[in-house]
Amino acid sequence: MVFLTVPLWLRSRLTDRYWRVQEVLRHARHFRGRKNRCYRLAVRAVTRAFVKCTRARRLKRRSMRTVSGPGDERKTGLWIRRITAASQEHGLKYPVFVGNLIKCQVELNRKVLADLAIYEPKTFKSLAALAKRRRQEGFAAALGDGKEPEGIFSRVVQYH
Amino acid sequence: MAAAVAAWALPVTFGRVVSACSRSIRRPPGPGAASLWSAPRRFRSQIASSPQGYVPKTSLSSPPWPETVLPEPAEETRHHAEVVGKVNELIATGQYGRLFAVVHFASHQWKVTSEDLILIENELDVACGERIRLEKVLLVGADNFTLLGKPLLGKDLVRVEATVIEKTESWPKINMKFKKRKNYKEEKKKISPEPTSASIFLYFVCGTPPQHSLVTGVQVHTQDLNLRTPGHQNGPDKLNHYAARLAP
After folding, report:
1. pTM (2 decimals)?
2. Mapping DSSP to helix (H, G, I), strand (E, B) and coil, where does residue B219 land?
3. Side-chain half-sphere of B38: how many Cα atoms within 13 Å?
4. What InterPro entries does the entry give (chain B) (predicted)?
5. How many CB pairs under 8 A join A and B?
6. Rounded to an integer, what distance in angstroms lies between the CA atom of residue B36 and that of residue A142?
């Protein structure tokens, strides 16, 4: 025979419901409307907020460099727009500038180039001059007939 | 007759454009261009003689891009040597103010000066208060000159050191996955270790002047070498004692 009176009498009841609800509501306090007060609505809003936050953390890094949108023909992020503006001040276009810098084995990324363009104008000017000169040497090598000595700034340094 | 003349005019102008192209970069035309000229040359003897290489200016006589003249190599090497000498002198005598550097560390590139703080997103196996040397230096600059690495600068040229201040944990980042109408919801709180490193110290290692042709960064700045004004590109000149901080 099994006596079930005692286990049925000792029910396990939830004692910290208040704190479980508060855990969700505290993330919703700055929302608009009833979502910041009512648990049932807040749960949905908080879940969506967390999902958007997770996605945005990965897109933030991407958006600094490329921005995809219906209106943009060319996908440009903040860094690229800043570098374009700065190189236009020196009479160069962005693809010319970046392409020639890479050909000179200068491996600065766009974040640092944008920072240099803002805070170190003299250094940026010298980088633009370097890109311009490398471009002219590239043209000389392509349009000339191959008998001229190769340009000084087109030399490639080999590391072991 | 007019049609025949027009038929000849085309190869003549084409040959002239090709020769003008190669001439615009200040180099003499090679053997490739000669074969295009030889046919029209035979017909040109009947035309009134004009000075060799003279092309009357038309819309097709020169290429549409501007003509660029590269400087003479000998003169350029002299100019480069002069500029490199000036920079070496500045470095050796310590006449630079605040230095900045671009450093590659923890898979990021940082633009760094002295007394700068950097927050790194992972854990380094270093105790608090220890000194680290950041070795991958891509660029070093002062007010009047910049040294660019191809892609890195030598370790015997600049020293960039950092002290680890504190090792903290990041705020609990929430990773939430949700699929609607499928009863699927998953939440993870990610707390990652974040050590903070502090006062970056930058100085030149005295003795070795730059060996490679890193002259490029200096070309533009040499005009400023004569003006030793106190302001520099980072901001108001704070302290000059960093210039004296050379390796023992």
Report:
1. 0.69
2. helix
3. 5
4. bL21-like (IPR028909), bL21-like_sf (IPR036164)
5. 120
6. 19
Q: Which residues on B lie below 8 Å from A54 (Cβ)?
A: 174-177
Structure tokens at B102: 């671009």
pLDDT in tens, B111-130: 988 888 888 888 788 888 88
Q: Of B113, B114, B27, B119, which is closest to residue B73 (Cα–Cα)?
A: B27
A33 touches chain B (CB under 8 A): no
> Residue ranges of the alpha helices (H) in chain B?
2-24, 31-44, 73-93, 216-219
DSSP B144-184: S-EEE-SSS--TTTEEEEEEEEEEEE---EEEEEEETTTTE
CB nearest to B32's CB, from A126, A137, A145 = A145
Q: What is the largest CA-CA distance in chain A?
A: 107
Coil vs helix vs strand at A48: helix
Q: Which residue has the tokens 């017909």?
A: B43
| A99-138 pLDDT per residue, tens | 999 999 989 999 999 999 999 999 999 999 999 999 998 8
Cβ atoms of A64 and A103 closer than 8 Å: no
Do A112 and B148 make contact, defined as CB atoms within 8 angstroms? no
